[in-house]
Amino acid sequence: MQEVFIVMTGKTLAAIENTIKAVEKLGGRALHVYPPSVMVASVPADSVGQLSGVARISAAKTEPFAARELKAADAQVTSAMAAWNDHVSVERRLQALASPTLGKSWGAARMQPPDPPREVQEHLRQREQSLLGPRAVSRVEGAPNLSVPVLVGRVAVGLVFVDSTVAQYSITNQEKLKVVSETTEGLNLLASFEPRANIQWFYDIKRPKLSLTAAQFTPANQNNWEDIWRDAAMGALGYSANLAGMNQYINSIKQANNAQWAYAIFVTKYPKFWFGYEWANHVVMDFGVDGWGIDEFHRVVAHETGHIFGCADEYGSSGCICTSLHGRYQIANGNCENCATNFVPCLMAHNTPAVCDYTRGQLGWNELAVKSKGSTVLKGTWTFDFDTGTQGPATGADIWWEQVNSVTRLLVPQSGAMLAHMGKPNFDAVSYQTLQKQSYTATPINGSNNAANQLKAGTVIAVKTNAGRYAKLRIDTYGYNLAITWVTYK
Q1: Distance between CA 389 and CA 382 in Å, rounded?
Q2: Which of 63, 197, 267, 336 has the fewest CB atoms in 10 Å of its CB?
Q3: Whether the Cβ atoms of residue 289 and residue 268 lie closer than 8 Å to each other
Q4: 3-state class of 446 per DSSP?
Q5: Cα–Cα distance for residue pair 147/417, rounded to 1 Å
Q6: C-beta of residue 38 within 8 angstroms of C-beta of residue 15
Q7: Distances (CA, A) of 182 to 76, 177, 285, 289
Q8: Quick check: 363 and 328 in contact, CB under 8 A?
């Protein structure tokens, strides 16, 4: 696949949709869209030449833009071009690999984490209720919480630079371009972890300029610092100068881009609770990113966006708890650094370009591309086909629950299917990617009714079906009949 910078001649959402369809017809997908005329897409390398002139595409470029091209473009296109130049820059990639903070825990000593202290977070959660009302809580623990968004499909991002006429709070054009580049890089990183989610970032870049002075931000009104500049920014953009105005803005970009989800990222030098935080439907970021530095802005943005879509902090000093449930599908925070038995350096724990299975589940990605799923009772001596979710099929069975005698019982792979015993991990957090990495064999698994039993309640078995798909199987109760839960991926 080859990433391509596309310039479109159309000026409407319908024209953008036509271009996306043309890209998809070639086997590609849209990654970033800067309405009305710019898109970054990923397409098969041998199809790049077919883009120009198709569906109102005036140019398709894989190389950086020259300085003269940047100067000739309008402000929105220049931002996109500058972000593209950074993205394809070899120097940037090498610099990122050499970063002294790469891989550090967000809770590392002498570093400030990208989330505020607990008392500030509690204040933000209270403010969250004033904006959104109490989020719906399922009556059944662990059941889906449909009020939490999942990171799939089209997402509208309001990137709002709260600028100022006051020198100490003003934002230069170069700083703006750097932040646009870092933001798109961070969101590109987050989306790259799951191509099947087909995430399309649609940007709305605003730059309201205020005249607020330092005298308006005092220790006495510290809890309202964000309100002061955010409300003023909303007013400057033509919305009501309050939380409702921010909601109106976010809803407007969602509707304008026909997006499934929308949120705002406010970037400013005005005083704020912390250098980076999230609450309700927006993220607040400072240019300095505290001690992490502006070149790490992209991973902090990715981390905070993870929170927008239900992810929990996993670094130890955040006070994370392994049993707390998060995201739409209420996945346990099992990679919490305080208690995880097999801790994985994850974006929600470390300054690391990776996500663990628990984060994947919290983002909603474990539910993607499911071929079959459910719970049933697998009867003794019967077979089961994971591709269709059928017990005792005439053909195509993947396992046989063999009863050799009253004691000896075996879970036997059938017709080329293979199994891998995973122990007792969190079933919901086991992802498609983890299933791919297992060591599969055609060896039966001992489920005998004695001390050798490897199929006790809670056991998870990875399955590579005889049709080449991956599935996960959990033993819910053990006996002559097995109560099981399974998920098979396409």
Answers
A1: 13
A2: 63
A3: no
A4: strand
A5: 39
A6: no
A7: 16, 9, 12, 12
A8: no
d(CA 471, CA 465): 7
The amino acid present at 282, given as its one-letter code, is: H
**Residue reference for tokens 């239900």:** 310
Percentage helix, strand, coil, to 5, in the chain?
A: 30, 25, 45
The model's pLDDT over 106-158, given as tens digits with 9 standing for 90+, comes to 888 777 888 888 888 888 877 777 666 555 444 345 566 778 899 999 999 99
The H-or-E segment that residue 34 falls in is strand 29-34
The residue ranges of DSSP E strands in 132-275, in sequence order, are 154-164, 200-206, 209-210, 261-268
CB 273 within 8 A of CB 120: yes
DSSP 115: S
- Say which amino acid occupies 266: F
Take residue 366 and report the two structure tokens written for it.
């474990």
- Rounded CA separation 181/174 (Å): 11
| Distance in angstroms (rounded) separating the CA atoms of residues 328 and 311 | 10
Q: Can you give the length of the chain in residues?
A: 490
Per-residue pLDDT of 275-332, as tens digits, reads 889 988 999 998 877 777 888 899 999 999 999 999 999 998 888 999 898 998 888 8
> Cβ(102)–Cβ(352) under 8 Å?
yes
List of residues 6+ apart from 336 with CB closer than 8 A: 312, 314, 316, 320, 321, 322
> Please, what sign has the CA dihedral across residues 179, 185, 186, 187?
positive
Nearest C-alpha neighbor of 298 from the set 86, 90, 149, 156: 86
